[in-house]
Design goal:
The complex is a heterodimer of chains A (331) and B (343). In chain A, strands 1, 2, 3, 4, 5 and 9 form a six-stranded mixed sheet that branches. A three-stranded antiparallel sheet of chain A has the order 6-7-8. By secondary structure, chain A is an alpha/beta fold. Chain A is built from eleven helices and nine strands. Chain A has two domains: 2-121 and 163-328, no CATH class; 122-162, no CATH class. By secondary structure, chain B is of the alpha+beta class. Chain B folds into two domains: 3-62 and 78-201, no CATH class; 212-338, no CATH class. Chain B is 34% helix and 21% strand. Chain B has helices at residues 11-21, 57-60, 92-105, 113-120, 169-178, 186-201, 212-216, 223-227, 236-240, 285-304, 314-318, 325-338, and strands at 3-7, 23-30, 33-38, 64-71, 74-77, 85-90, 122-127, 153-157, 161-166, 182-183, 247-254, 257-264. In chain B, the strands form two sheets. An eight-stranded mixed sheet of chain B has the order 3-2-6-7-8-9-1-10. A four-stranded antiparallel sheet of chain B has the order 5-4-12-11, with no helix packed on it. Chain B is globular and about 65 Å long. The termini of chain B are far apart. The chains are: A alpha/beta (331), B alpha+beta (343).
Chain lengths: 331, 343
């Protein structure tokens, strides 16, 4: 892993010094267990802080749309920056979606692809040591991780036990679109998909309603899920529109449910299951259950995965006479 | 003031008696971690938690609070009726944050009736920290693992027993009323002090700028766009913060009937400062993050005489992009100390 990291630092310094890019978006270490910081590199000296490992959970594509918006105080002499970005598989798929949605110009990007073996779900790790907190995490090599807790205890676990659920079902660990790659490609897992949706669907309607109600009741309306998501680039979100006001500002069940259902539906045909919303949520809400449900519907009804090709329109942007319309009457 | 020593085995019966006569709010643990909850079954109370994922501020300043109801032009205020409450096991940082919220909602000639009703009903039994978390920095912002401010009673876990020290008259009355345990011995009081001192020694110090006149000039520094480069504009930092207290007021109505609601708001959202004209005086993340930092460390010291940060580390734990206020403060301190153009 560290060879990839060394190569990354070297390449980013070259790209900046050679004038290929103005800035590079990557990850740097953070002073908290299992966390990394989003790191925007503007000089080759800053490239030394770049890291690449299983703690790199943020979907860096979420930072892109704002970089290509002209600042309100610069009308004439503003030129779009040339942006380098580190892209694991899911990040590259989000970039593909942003290019097709005309949020990011392809020619302004220099995508550095990297093979990903999955990233850690800090909430899963936290649950293993609760009610103490993680004080330190050591990556031991060979897929083993040592968790140190604030009560002085320590335990060794398999890295696979800590990964985001989505990573376990990932079919695109390598960048689907890139200008260059660093390190060896990762082999995709060949397991079943939508395990969580299937297991949830097997419960009774009352159980599902109760589980949904309880899960959503923890939401604090911080919108970390929305802001961490590359798909949420709308200038004005339905959740904050005031005329008309679609939903209230409270944390009462109706407002919370409406927000989360609205958010999930807006992901249909766009979500790449990167897990950034799950990682971002301070309350550890199982947001993936909702997004995977719409992902499964889109795939089973209209076929095709989203964000795998710049040239192909996404399923919900196409129309065929044979398209299933049953969802309108048979939810 | 009473200082009592309680055998740990007697703790459940103490909690039972509290819950019988008062509303008891204490830490419980679910799959998200620890959180404060009203207690019905005292067996669910956790004593061994590090800190709660969210702070205790929602107990005195709820995220959603109806202020009044109206119907056909007639309005009726909704001052909450709060039963006598014991907030049990809150960490010293959160207990201290209540004194800061008091300054906002019950100081400088202001007495917010909604806040006052909730706050006035609460007796705070704080729980000293024996082990700091990896993002704790209370000792760098005027607190400590054994800090008594904001507490009516300070509890310390001494292994086999719990030392309960009354800090205020209200706390003393609570201990007298409960009449639990036995008077503590000097060695036990000393052991509690020693525990807190050791916990404090295990916390990494943070360089916090305190010169308020120089801090006022930090507004114009170049570092803000750099430290906010990763900020995505969510409210995870402010909503988990025990001292952030900004709110919005909204009317919800339907055909002449409705209510006025107060809800948390945050300077991290673009909407927070968006004018009706479409102009936004804080147009980007750097201006918004600067507001959060300077509000805590410059404007609040000017207005209330204290920085509005208790060093709980929650904003560091929860930031989705790894922004760390400890790093920002250290950098600010360094720049203010060396930059001759500032101050």
């Amino acid at each position: 892993m560290s060879e990839v990291q060394d190569r990354l630092r070297q390449r980013v310094a070259e790209l900046l010094d050679g004038g290929t890019i103005d800035l590079f978006i990557g990850y740097a270490s953070a002073d908290a267990p299992l966390k990394t910081a989003v790191h925007v590199v503007r000089s080759s000296a800053d490239a030394e802080a770049l890291v690449w490992d299983a703690r790199c959970t943020s979907n860096l594509a979420a930072l892109l749309p704002d970089l290509f918006k002209r600042p309100q105080d610069q009308r004439d002499e503003w030129a779009a920056p040339r942006v380098g970005i580190l892209a694991k598989g899911c990040v590259s798929r989000s970039i593909v979606g942003l290019i097709k949605a005309h949020q990011v110009p392809r020619e302004a990007l220099h995508i550095v692809g990297v093979g990903c073996s999955g990233v850690v779900d800090r909430h899963r790790a936290a649950r293993l040591v609760a009610p103490a907190q993680l004080s330190k995490v050591e990556f031991l090599g060979d897929g083993r991780v040592r968790l140190h807790a604030t009560d002085g205890s320590e335990q060794d676990v398999d890295l696979a036990e800590l990964l985001l659920e989505g990573c376990l079902e990932c079919r695109h660990p390598n960048a689907v679109l890139s200008d260059e790659s660093i390190g060896e490609p990762t082999t995709a897992a060949d397991g079943s998909r939508f395990a969580n949706v299937k297991s949830f669907a097997s419960r009774t309607i009352d159980e599902r309603w109760e589980a949904f109600r309880q899960e959503i009741s923890r939401c604090i309306r911080c919108y970390a899920c929305r802001e961490a998501c590359p798909n949420c680039y709308c200038t004005e979100c339905f959740a904050e529109e005031t005329s008309p006001r679609w939903i209230g500002v409270t944390t009462e069940p109706s407002d919370l449910m409406l927000f989360h259902l609205g958010r999930a539906f807006h992901q249909a045909g766009r979500c790449v299951d990167c897990g950034a919303c799950v990682s971002a949520c301070p309350q550890g809400i199982d947001l993936r259950l909702l997004t995977q449900k719409v992902n499964e519907d889109v795939e089973s009804l209209f076929g095709g995965e989203v964000g795998v090709s710049v040239d192909r329109l996404e399923p919900l942007l196409q129309f065929e006479m044979a398209d299933d319309e049953g969802f309108m009457t048979e939810p | 003031m009473n200082v009592r020593m309680l055998d740990k085995l007697d703790l459940p019966s103490l909690l039972e008696r509290l819950a019988e006569t008062r509303r008891l709010i204490a830490p419980v643990v679910d799959r998200t971690g620890a959180r404060f909850a009203p207690i019905e079954d005292v067996a669910s109370v956790r004593w061994d938690y590090r800190n709660t994922s969210l702070s205790a501020k929602g107990i005195v300043f709820p995220q959603t609070e109806p202020l009044l109801a109206f119907r056909n032009g007639e309005a009726e205020e909704r001052i909450p009726e709060t039963p006598s409450t014991v907030l049990f096991g809150v960490r010293p940082c959160d207990a201290r944050s209540l004194t800061l919220l008091d300054a906002v909602f019950r100081g400088n000639g202001i007495d917010d009736p909604y806040y006052a009703a909730r706050r006035g009903a609460i007796t705070v039994v704080a729980l000293a920290c024996n082990e700091p978390g990896p993002t704790c920095f209370c000792t760098s912002v005027g607190g400590s693992p054994g800090d008594e401010s904001g507490a009516d009673v300070l509890a310390t876990d001494l292994g086999g027993g719990v030392l309960l020290r009354a800090v205020t008259d209200r706390g003393d009355a609570l201990l007298c009323d409960l009449d639990v345990g036995r008077p503590a011995e000097d060695g036990e009081i000393e052991a509690a002090r020693e525990n807190a001192a050791q916990a404090a020694a295990r916390m990494a110090p943070v360089q916090v700028p305190t010169d308020s006149s120089r801090l006022l000039n930090a507004f114009g520094l170049n570092l803000w766009s750099d430290v906010a480069a990763g900020c995505i504009g969510c409210g995870a930092c402010t909503y988990s913060c025990p001292t952030c207290h900004c709110f919005d007021i909204t009317d919800e109505q339907k055909r002449g009937t409705g209510r006025r609601v107060r809800s948390w708001d945050t300077c991290a959202f673009p909407l927070f400062t968006l004018h009706g004209s479409g102009h936004n005086p804080r147009p980007a993340a750097d201006a918004r993050l600067r507001q959060r930092v300077l509000h805590k460390f410059s404007y609040c010291p000017e207005n209330f005489g204290q920085a509005f940060c208790v060093g709980c580390g929650r904003c560091v734990d929860h930031c989705p992009t790894g922004i760390d206020i400890r790093r920002i403060l250290a950098r600010l301190d360094e720049v203010l100390a060396t930059d001759s153009e500032v101050g």
